[in-house]
Amino acid sequence: MADLQARSSLLRLNSYAFCQAFLESKQPSEILDTHFTSRPKITEHGPLWATSRLPFLGRTFRGRKDGGHASTDSSSSTCDDYFSLLASTLSFHPDKHTFPPSSDLIVDASAGENGVVSVVAHAWFASVVTGKSWEEDFIYRLSEFDKKVRLDIGRFGLIRCVLGRR
Q1: 154 near 36, Cβ under 8 Å?
Q2: Which of 28, 44, 86, 105 has the fewest Cβ atoms within 10 Å of its own Cβ atom?
């Protein structure tokens, strides 16, 4: 039981640090280097109708471009590509209330492979092409952590809910 509680605390701490990296405008390469394993996977889910406008939705991005960990599957893209595609499509406008306090992260240290953390977040986004902006609630589901509690899989945007427009 003590091991599970210690693991839960570590999952909470590292997942919170992952979220804070976005508030601190860390570069994607730094986020990947610090918070993901050497063989990361990222999948962002969303409605099927949105995939033509948000080409990163519904795809799994694997590996890295540098460090010899690039994807070996020519039909898939790397996690570096995910962040590039995301940045070329949307701008993210977080504020100090975007992510909840660490105590509000939903942590299950016994779920999945080495634990699962869910984070309910809130921010403004804008289309890079049109400039239109909107407010969203969204979820990060962080899973498949390694023993050092770095992510193997990050699943983002399980729920995208448009709340308003600027």
Answers
A1: yes
A2: 28
H or E element in which residue 12 lies: helix 2-23
11: alpha, beta or left? (left if phi > 0; alpha if psi -120 to 50): alpha
d(CA 43, CA 154): 7
Task: Name the residue type at position 10.
Answer: L
Report the mean per-residue pLDDT for the chain: 85
Please give the Cα distance from 159 to 115 (Å, whole number). Answer: 20
Q: What is the pLDDT of residue 165?
A: 47
CB 40 within 8 A of CB 64: yes
Question: What are 153-166's pLDDT values in tens digits?
Answer: 666 543 444 444 44
3-state SS, residue 62: strand
pTM across the whole model: 0.84
